Predict the 3D structure of the following.
Amino acid sequence: MPSYTIAVLPGDGIGPEVIRAGLDVVNEAATRAPGLRLDFAEYEAGAELYRRTGVALPPEVYRACEAADAIYFGAVGHPDIRLPDGTEVHGEVMFKLRFGLDLYAGLRPIRLYAGVESALRSARAIDYVIVRESVEGLYAARGGGNLLYDEVATDTMIITRKGTERVTEYAFRLAERRRGRPSDGRRMVTCCDKSNVLRSYAFFRRVYDEVAVRHPGIGRDYAYVDAMTLWQVLAPEAYDVIVAENMFGDIISDLGAGTIGGMGMAPSGDIGDRHAVFQPSHGTAPTIAGKGIANPLATILSGALMLDWLGERQGDAAAVEAGRRIDRAVEVVLAEGRAKPRDLGGRDSTGAVAEAVCRALGEV
């Protein structure tokens, strides 16, 4: 069995609290998987480090992340700590990792667990994944836009054949591993774009179609982004895997999270061919930092995604099973009401939720 080195970046705000909870659960799952060995190395990066030193992601920390088998990330940034151009520090860490390590597939699972109340009045089964292209699109213009005479500002959309092809291929391969959309069990990849208006998105859709031909067992589906936000609310059970450009993927991911209990239930992975970062989709929530009330489930579920990715990449069944065991343990805890975080209407602390998941790992 292989062993894995995990670079841990707790970050700012509630990041260290939820990462501590996530590590407790991931370590417990690993002890129940014979032969699975995880070695964690923790590093400092983020807004507080930038405030003290002027550097948010030191070169030696970046190199350690590059050398690691995976990166487990808390949350980074603070609204009062900003770069000279007025933007937040978050990008100095996450964008440098995402672009530097070529983490092109942003994995955003959207799943409503039994025991969690949805914001939708008539919520049915919600279980789909958004695959967000993460190194192109509008966000590729970050730092390269123009502001002319404080009157005209421009940023450029970047869509390439290679970038679109590989993220779409990732989406179709993911669909092949899933159970299909909740409405009828059909495996489906939805292309989310604005191809009726913008030439760049028409190109994105054309490349999507070219990739789809190679996967005849997976259904094709299309949605303009404005309609996508409507159907995420009205008929979320009709979706399985959704692939989208960077900015659109960012927006619809947060909307999806709002239908499944909020950002505390939204794990994520930023995945490339050789590297990957796993983190909760939420921010640092500085107003509740240090109070022990943050919801750790997005971080815990991100740890499950990490184990699944490591196992699939290495052909390691023990790592895959450890990730699935975490997911099943979270199911049990929420469905049976063993622990309920504050943002879901409960009273349990960050640590208490993690302890409940650890106990459930012995039962699933």
